[in-house]
């Protein structure tokens, strides 16, 4: 899942858990009419907030890539069903209490005003959450751009390093060839010296032989 969707998901699950808990607590307020009425109205506000969260999740899912979208769409559909069940339970409880006179005309007006006030607060809270998530999305986008820029720079540096490596390799190859040439020249020089030494030896022997035979003839 995405970071933004995760935020919606976590908030929705906490919200529906709270709604379920409060629905089960309504029956405990039989002797506390005002508290029961306030609880029922508050649950309605929470259901509205949960509905808005689902709408936010749907918008977020539409902005995702096709590979991620199906799984999250399925999750949102499941949340819609669970929320519909909670809304039905709330409607049933409120309908029963209205028939028993818990919400009279005056109470209805007061409840409506209170509901509008709560809805305004919920809307403000949702707007704040949306603004934070939008800012988080922008920050993620900026971070991604920086990461791409760094990746491009690393790619260019990699090419430079590769080119330098090729140059060093070429220099090493030239040095190796130069060493081979020097080695061959040294070997040839050595052979020439040996040949000269042998030739000098033959010349010396020839001179000695000439001297020897010259002296022998005189005798």
UniProtKB/TrEMBL annotation:
Organism expressing this protein natively: Peronospora farinosa
Annotated Vesicle transport v-SNARE N-terminal domain residues: 1-92
Membership in a protein family: Belongs to the VTI1 family.
GO CC terms of this entry: endoplasmic reticulum membrane; ER to Golgi transport vesicle membrane; Golgi apparatus; late endosome membrane; SNARE complex
Transmembrane segments: 194-215
Keyword field: Coiled coil, Membrane, Protein transport, Transmembrane, Transmembrane helix, Transport
Domain Sec20 C-terminal: 126-211
Family annotation (InterPro entries): Sec20_C (IPR056173), SNARE (IPR010989), v-SNARE_N_sf (IPR038407), Vesicle_trsprt_v-SNARE_N (IPR007705)
Pfam families registered for this protein in UniProt: Sec20, V-SNARE
Compartments it resides in: Membrane
An annotated Gene Ontology molecular function: SNAP receptor activity
GO biological process, one term: vesicle fusion
Protein name: Vesicle transport v-SNARE N-terminal domain-containing protein
UniProt topology in membrane: Single-pass type IV membrane protein
């Amino acid at each position: 899942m995405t970071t933004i969707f995760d935020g919606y998901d976590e908030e929705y699950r906490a919200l529906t858990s709270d709604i379920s808990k409060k629905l089960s607590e309504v029956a405990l307020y039989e002797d506390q009419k005002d508290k029961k009425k306030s609880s029922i109205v508050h649950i309605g506000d929470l259901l509205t907030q949960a509905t808005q969260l689902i709408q936010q999740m749907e918008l977020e899912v539409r902005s995702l890539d096709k590979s991620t979208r199906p799984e999250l769409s399925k999750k949102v559909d499941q949340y819609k069903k669970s929320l519909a069940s909670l809304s039905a339970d709330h409607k049933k409880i409120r309908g029963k209490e209205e028939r028993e006179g818990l919400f009279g005309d005056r109470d209805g007006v007061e409840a409506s005003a209170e509901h509008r006030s709560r809805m305004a607060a919920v809307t403000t809270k949702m707007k704040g959450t949306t603004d934070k998530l939008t800012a988080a999305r922008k920050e993620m986008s900026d971070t991604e751009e920086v990461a791409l820029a760094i990746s491009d720079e690393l790619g260019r540096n990699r090419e430079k390093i590769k080119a330098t490596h090729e140059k060093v390799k070429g220099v090493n190859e030239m040095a190796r060839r130069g060493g081979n040439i020097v080695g061959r020249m040294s070997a040839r020089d050595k052979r020439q010296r040996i040949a000269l030494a042998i030739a000098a030896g033959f010349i010396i022997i020839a001179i000695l032989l000439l001297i020897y035979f010259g002296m022998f003839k005189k005798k």
